[in-house]
Amino acid sequence: MSTSPAVGSPAVVHASPVAFDTVPHEPLTAALDRAASEHGARIAVDFLGATTTYRELADEVARAAGALLALGVQRGDRVAIALPNCTQHLVAFYAVLRIGGVVVEHNPTYSADELAHQLADSGASVALVWTKAVPAVLAARERTALRTVVAVDLVHDLPRHSRWALRLPVAKARRTAAAMRGPVPADVPLWHRLVHAAAPLPADHPTPTPEDVALLQYTGGTTGTPKAAVLTHHNLVANAEQGHLWTRHARGQEVVYGVLPFFHAFGLTLCLSYSVRIAATLVVLPSFDPALVLAAQRRRPGTFLPAVPPMLDRLVTAAAAAGVSLRSFSRAISGAMALPPATAQRWEQATGGLVVEGYGMTETSPVALGNPFDSSRRPGALGLPFPGTQARVVSQQDVTADVAPGEAGELLVRGPQVFTGYWNRPEETAGQLLADGWLRTGDVVRVDEDGFVLLVDRIKEMIVTGGFKVYPSQVEDHLRTMPGIADVAVVGVPGGDMGESVVAAVVVADGHDVDLAAVREWCGQRLARYAVPRRLVVLPDLPRSQVGKVLRRVVRDQVLASPAA
């Protein structure tokens, strides 16, 4: 059995195969200025057929920045954005940054209690809110420092003919309108009116510095109370530049599909930031709907798709059924969860392009590792360090000790995209960021002989039963191959003298029956005895986040609330 290197021995550092000289010394907003100057006539945004050029987008951002100034927003003020994907999400995002404000992204479908916690924690003074989310924000307002709530109507981003169609006295028009907008109290100002009436921000208005805070992005909701990661302009510029070096996309030529939620770190960087940095056309969809994606594909074929694995599977199935070609997509990047080799194969067969897996977390802006866009890509692996990024694998008991090559340990990363800490949480920051700049990811990995990082599981989700460590993902991977199981999540619950008991929560495929005895027999073929589930719970479906990640904490709560099986 191999042993870990002694404490104080030279660290085993894994570096990126792609050279990275330095991060451009500029704020994130500089990319929009550059795109408007060099590619002003190019379509920047296509929202359900309504198009905006880069010159028009920059002008709209200048007016929106003027509107924010008129609302009293000053440098360093936090501005909450609670919007679905839409053109005004981009406008608001860049307008806040341009005047030196700090964007605080929120899920617009959150309840009043969920929003109240985040709004109070950030200290946001102004909130730009989807009309349907206005009631929740107003209900939370008295528990926050909010002084102004502004309503944003998605309908104003639609093409003119679509806005006209929504006024038709027919049931379908009424249903669509009801899904896109909600009633707004008379004392809540409307964003489009404020922007239309505002004077553009003067060109000589001070720009933010690279060191300024750009974004408070909440994270940790799947494992505990959400906390805000503090990301600077430098962090976000670095990750966009790293992504450009990785993909080698040509500026002013790509069509990026914005199907990931912009309020999530993955969608924010790949769509709001990266697409503008390469002057791409961003095809914006309010939510992921295969029919909407295929309609957009007929209208404006995409070349690059950031997505999660279930999206790739659903698109391939829907495209085949509808007879729509996906061959224009030359590249796709998958994140938030493991990319099954079968999913990668389906996508590459349907598109003729490549799909690779990336890895990261909100604290790394978010991408830290990725698979190469070439024949060396390895479905199922997290990949190699991004340009300018270093990785280490250390003992789970002692983060100063590197593990032996090939052994499992906690992944540490260091690079210019690593956050500066958690908002107003110095103790949690100290526990996550080590003194020498290394970030503890909380993920257990190992590195193979070619330098590829392979995920074992999350430390916080590891199950300890009878003194043995069980990694849920390994049990799940095996159970997914069992006939009759459509989906599975494995969690640990209190197990008396054993510490924890392994429980499999499964979604059963149509026309099948699955019982505990069959599950235990299947697992016993490949897994250690202590890793075999001791209990089975059948659920109609698994709770997932907005980007499709299984919420194991919620699954555990459901298991604890269910009768023993």
Automatic annotation (TrEMBL):
Keywords: Ligase. GO terms for molecular function: acid-thiol ligase activity. PROSITE patterns: AMP_BINDING. PANTHER family: LONG-CHAIN-FATTY-ACID--COA LIGASE (PTHR43767), NONRIBOSOMAL PEPTIDE SYNTHASE PES1 (EUROFUNG)-RELATED (PTHR43767:SF1). The lineage of its organism: Bacteria, Bacillati, Actinomycetota, Actinomycetes, Micrococcales. Residues 475-549 form the AMP-binding enzyme C-terminal domain. It comes from the Bacteria. The keyword Ligase applies. Residues 33-423 form the AMP-dependent synthetase/ligase domain. SUPFAM superfamilies: Acetyl-CoA synthetase-like. This is AMP-dependent synthetase and ligase. It holds the Pfam family AMP-binding.
